[in-house]
Design a protein that fits this description.
Rossmann fold; alpha/beta
Length: about 290
């Protein structure tokens, strides 16, 4: 039984693939009871087969209040004492790209609902349990949360908001024994970007003529760059190891940058004047050499 594991329980959202799945498998390997939140029944069944019962897949759409409340009740009942819930890893998220000028507002509302409000809803549901155990909250951010790339404005806006919420939460709960960390990985081998690029290409086809004339060439450069970056992306297991460190460290850092590209973007955002950052970022992303 998952609830019998001796290191306590960990909830990982968005665990059907990528970073979330890598975290679920690693925490299971290290002796934690892992509750792996997935959005569909198909993913729930697939993960159950792959892990042969050592991980507990649970249906969890983080935008659905009923799902969150059900999972919170399940974990509170199953984990018990003395170990209880050790950590919540907020990984679930979506990516949306394209020019803000033509972005349907319902798409922006959707990405903010998942990447910001959904994360906060999970925190609100599980913080009382984490406070009792002195547990950890680990949010998965992105360098896009402090350096907004062109044509990734919706995603960057959501990650900027998550970064701010993480900072505020960390300061609010510092006296309660709950510690909060933000993981900011660079390019990672994950299918979420492939899906996003396909959706953006479909969306681009519906653009009015003036939008295509204004933006299509530049967007194609960005998508070509994303394809190049995927070739050199780090495996999600590398990020999972940093998440584990944030959970197990006696003194976890507020932020963990993972990958050289994440550090490079951090330095650019912190130390370069804005006009120079604009010039460097646009010059790099819109280079014809990516096509």
């Amino acid at each position: 039984m998952v609830s019998d594991r001796m290191k306590g329980a960990v909830l990982v959202t968005g665990a059907s693939s990528g970073i979330g799945k890598a975290c679920a498998l690693l925490f299971n390997e290290k002796g934690y009871a892992v509750y792996a939140g997935v959005r569909t029944r198909e993913a729930e069944m697939r993960l159950g087969r792959e892990t042969k019962g050592s991980v507990e897949p649970i249906l969890l759409d983080i935008t659905c209040r009923d799902h969150i409340e059900r999972v919170a009740r399940l974990m509170e009942k199953s984990t018990g004492q003395p170990h209880g819930i050790r950590a919540v890893v907020n990984n679930a998220g979506i990516v949306l790209g394209g020019p803000l000028e033509y972005l349907p507002l319902q798409h922006l509302r959707r990405i903010l609902e998942v990447n910001v409000l959904g994360q906060i809803a999970i925190i609100q549901a599980f913080l009382p349990m984490l406070r009792r155990t002195g547990g950890r909250i680990v949010n998965i951010g992105s360098p896009s949360g402090f350096l907004a790339p062109p044509f990734l404005g919706p995603y960057a806006a959501s990650k900027f908001a998550l970064e701010a919420a993480t900072d505020a939460l960390r300061r609010e709960v510092d006296a309660s024994g709950v510690q909060v960390s933000l993981i900011e990985p660079g390019a990672v081998e994950t299918g979420v970007w492939d899906k996003s690029m396909k959706e953006a290409e479909l969306w681009e086809k519906s653009f009015p003529r003036e939008a295509k004339q204004r933006y299509s060439s530049r967007m194609q450069n960005v998508w070509a760059l994303m394809s190049r970056l995927r070739e050199k992306a780090m495996p999600p297991e590398k990020v999972a190891r940093v998440v584990l460190r944030a959970v197990e460290s006696g003194h976890p850092k507020p932020r963990y940058f993972v990958g050289f590209d994440a550090w490079l973007q951090c330095l650019l955002a912190r130390f370069c004047p804005v006009f120079l950052t604009d010039r460097l970022l646009n010059g790099w992303m819109f280079s014809r050499s990516w096509k």
